[in-house]
Design brief:
Layout (H helix, E strand, L loop, with lengths): L6 H10 L2 H14 L2 H11 L7 H13 L12 H9 L2 H4 L5 H28 L4 H7 L2 H9 L6 E3 L2 H11 L9 H24 L11 H18 L1 H5 L10 H13 L4 H23 L5 H21 L31 H30 L5 H16 L7 E3 H9 L6 H16 L9 H11 L6 H10 L1 H16 L2 H21 L3 E6 L6 E3 L12 E6 L3 E2 L4 H18 L9 E5 L5 E2 L1 H16 L3 E5 L3 H9 L2 H5 L4 E2 L2 H18 L1
Parallel strand pairs: 5-7, 6-8, 7-9, 9-10
Antiparallel strand pairs: 1-2, 3-4, 3-5
Helix pairs in contact: 2-29, 7-8, 7-16, 7-19, 7-20, 7-21, 9-18, 9-20, 10-17, 11-17, 11-18, 12-23, 12-24, 15-16, 15-21, 17-19, 22-23, 23-24, 25-26
Keywords: Membrane, Transmembrane, Transmembrane helix, Transport
GO molecular function, one term: secondary active sulfate transmembrane transporter activity
Protein name: STAS domain-containing protein
């Protein structure tokens, strides 16, 4: 006679029990169930439908534009709150004081002293005339001051975005051949950059920025810093003809060629002298926080002193390369220069989307870093809207793409800024400079601009963070290296493409082949944990609890998860054969699964069929809102019977224990 508890006998019994007998047993189990357990299961099965896609989209737009306080206010104040949500300056401006203005004034003047020489240098990096860098430090900061919510961030041109523009746009239009068409394309790209940023913010698409992971940004910034530094060898060595390529091999070939033919050592001596001076002042400012103004003033002092030296000694007649062309005055309109119908509009949109992501990533990272120090929250979506509108307006007023600068924001913070009024002070100071002193900058040597940019590059190379990435996650380090070497030996686009491709591959591997864990009960508790992570957790005889670690059960991973679960059931039956104990019930913990598609539902149906044919019941524990709604609509709940859907694992285990006892009694 075969033992009552053998797995074979369980399966034969389950397969031959009449439907009426099985139903009666389940009804008896339901009657024996604890009242709380039955009530909780009813809550789960009778939950309302989740919000529709259109409702979620409408709510996202409302939350982005309108402040949360509007719900608590009468309708008469709705327009005021709307304007305050769109222009935060209207809210905090009412409590602005003279004491705060004094701090913002000093911070803004200090910021301008650093911003003016950097803006001229970054314009040169973007292959634009110097005045366009100063234009970019006037209009975008003013627009951001009205719409932005960060108190410390300093807006203007930055090295990485300037490199992006020159590296990608000059492949479409050569600035040395047709500077007018190149400039028009820069403004068009800036318009698309702002448009993409505004759309990202309005529709709460900030997650798109996260496609550029932290590791990718670290690698990209490091590679870009080296490329930018190599590009500055043109000004530092006084080279007239230089390669338009950005990869390290082409740049070094151009430098070696120039060293054997035409270069002017005086440029190198002048540039290196002031570079050493700027780095020394930065070292002093780092050691003594009270002297923060010294490294901030050093670039402007270097520009003024070097310009005087060149002017008084007529060094430009002896090989020193100077700026020469420098047009001052107010920002001219560039509306007529935007080209939306030309042959390059597609390229402009593509470059604009890349610049939008890079600029947003840098700005939001900078803004949130300093906001956390000051103890307030920065809304990323509102920041995107502010950045978008400032670049759209900037593209209409002869500005190129602007964003938040880490180096200038650090100076602004150290100078004691209280609000974005420091940006307004900086913008007005730069505007006054455009009106009064641009003619004096005619003799500014290019070697000084190169040294100013070079002095800002060490902050972009973060070796400590790269080492931390290596220690924590080797795959992330591969992403970092891919971005770094892609930018260094390929191009800016190739570096970004490699980083995003590796990141996506990592996501796809994790999504297609998620892990499934066997859970056991911690003795003396109702807590169920992974038996591999917690050896103290014990399995319940006859009951197998499997947890799905994926956030979604979809076409990409449904078949893989189904086969993994079936294999676990098979392995469990094989290992328990000697103890004459098989798997009577499989409890599927779906607490981690946030969503499911039709492929996932079909896979569960196939799993249920195979389990039933093998004499194993399927129970579902803790399905999430969208999951249980779709399972009900697909009538999957009817197939496994509503009594086998549970509020949590503890309820499922208690029910399945009684089911096991009933089956054993009938064997």
């Amino acid at each position: 006679m075969q033992p009552k508890s053998s797995p074979k006998h369980f399966k034969e019994t389950m397969g031959t029990l009449p439907a009426e007998s099985s139903t009666m047993e389940l009804q008896q189990l339901d009657r024996d169930a604890a009242p709380g357990q039955t009530e909780r299961a009813k809550w789960l099965l009778s939950s309302p439908n989740p919000p529709s896609l259109w409702h979620e989209l409408r709510s996202s737009i409302r939350e982005t534009v309108l402040p949360q306080e509007r719900k608590k206010q009468p309708r008469t104040q709705g327009h005021v709150l709307f304007l305050q949500g769109l222009f935060p300056i209207l809210k905090w401006g009412r409590s602005y004081s003279a004491a705060k203005f004094k701090k913002d004034l000093m911070a803004g003047l200090t910021l301008a002293s650093l911003c003016i020489p950097q803006s001229i240098g970054y314009a040169n990096l973007a292959k634009l005339d110097p005045q366009y860098g100063l234009y970019t430090s006037v209009v975008p900061p003013l627009i951001y001051a009205l719409m932005g919510s960060s108190r410390e961030i300093a807006i203007g041109p930055v090295a990485v975005v300037s490199l992006l523009l020159s590296a990608m746009i000059q492949k479409v239009v050569d600035p040395s051949v047709d500077p007018v068409a190149y400039r028009s394309l820069v403004f068009t790209v800036t318009f698309f950059t702002g448009a993409f940023q505004a759309v990202f913010g309005i529709f709460r698409l900030g997650f798109l920025v996260d496609f550029l992971s932290h590791a990718a940004i670290v690698g990209f910034m490091g590679g870009a810093a080296i490329v930018i530094g190599l590009q500055q060898l043109k000004g530092l060595l006084g080279i007239s003809n230089f390669t338009t390529k950005t990869d390290v091999v082409s740049v070094m070939e151009a430098v070696l060629y120039a060293l054997h033919h035409s270069w002017y050592p005086l440029n190198f001596v002048l540039g290196c002298s002031f570079l050493i001076f700027i780095l020394i002042t930065r070292f002093i400012g780092t050691r003594n926080k009270k002297l923060f103004w010294l490294p901030a003033m050093a670039p402007l002092f270097s520009v003024i002193l070097s310009t005087l030296i060149v002017y008084l000694t007529k060094a430009d007649k002896h090989g020193i390369k100077i700026v020469k062309h420098f047009k001052g005055g107010l920002n001219p309109s560039s509306v007529h220069q935007l080209k939306f119908g030309g042959p390059h509009v597609g390229e402009a949109a593509k470059i604009g989307s890349i610049c939008a992501l890079i600029a947003l990533t840098e700005a939001i990272a900078v803004g949130r870093s300093f906001a956390s120090v000051k103890g307030y929250h920065l809304d990323g979506n509102k920041e995107m809207v502010a950045m978008g509108f400032m670049n759209i307006v900037g593209s209409l007023t002869s500005c190129y793409a602007a964003t938040g600068s880490f180096s200038r924001t650090a100076v602004n913070f150290s100078a004691g800024c209280e609000t974005v009024v420091s940006n307004i002070v900086m913008a007005i100071t730069v505007l006054v400079s455009l009106l009064l002193i641009t003619r004096l900058l005619y003799y500014t040597p290019l070697a000084i601009l190169a040294s100013i940019i070079l002095s800002a590059l060490p902050g972009l190379i973060d070796l400590n963070e790269a080492y931390n990435i290596w220690k924590v996650d080797k795959l992330d380090f591969i992403v970092c290296l891919g971005a770094f070497f892609g930018v260094l030996f390929g191009s800016v686009e190739i570096g970004l493409l490699i980083a995003v491709a590796i990141s996506f591959a990592k996501i796809m591997v994790d999504s297609i082949k998620p892990s499934t864990q066997v859970l056991g009960k911690i003795p003396g508790t109702d807590i169920f944990c992974d038996i591999l992570q917690y050896p103290a957790a014990t399995q319940i005889p006859g009951i197998l609890i499997v947890s799905i670690s994926s956030g979604t059960l979809c076409f990409a991973n449904a078949s893989f998860i189904r086969e993994r679960i079936l294999r676990r059931v098979f392995d469990e039956n094989e290992t328990k054969e000697n103890t004459k104990e098989g798997v009577l019930v499989l409890i599927l913990d779906m607490s981690n699964v946030m969503n499911i598609d039709t492929s996932g539902i079909y896979s569960l149906q196939e799993l249920h069929k195979k389990l039933i044919s093998g004499g194993t019941k399927l129970a579902v524990a803790n399905p999430r809102w969208k999951v249980i709604t779709k399972l009900k609509k697909a009538k999957f709940i009817d197939k496994i019977e509503a009594g086998w859907v549970f509020f949590n694992i503890a309820d499922a285990v208690e029910y399945c224990r009684r089911f096991k006892i009933n089956v054993l009694d009938n064997c």
